[in-house]
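seq as requested:
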Amino acid sequence: MCSALPRTIFAASVQQLKSLMVVCMSQYKAARSTVFWAGIGLMHVANAALYDLSSRNWRYYFLFYIRSFQQLHPAFAVGKGIVQGLLAMAMQSAAITSPEAQLIMNEFLQGGGFIPASPTRKGVSWWIIT
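struct tokens:
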């Protein structure tokens, strides 16, 4: 009877965490070096983005979190392994191709390649990979 309630609560919590991570990572420089909360939150929402590929904006969130791990990488060396794992999961679920994953990883290692996709919208930078 209430079997949908836990899923609804989980989805709402993930959506709230996504929004918080986007705001914090794009507006607060200190968040980019705080690995304890940011790393855990980023892993959770990146996994959630891959879990719900039917969402029309899963790719935006996935790439945003890869970019965020790139920003954390100088202070959080294990971020490279996390990004490799996320890319492997994305390929396994057929969300991205192997060449795409390789391009994203190369850009991650080079420390660049991401550019603003459009003007700031409601204070949040939107990102794409070139």
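The helical segments are 4-27, 35-51, 58-72, 79-92, 98-110.
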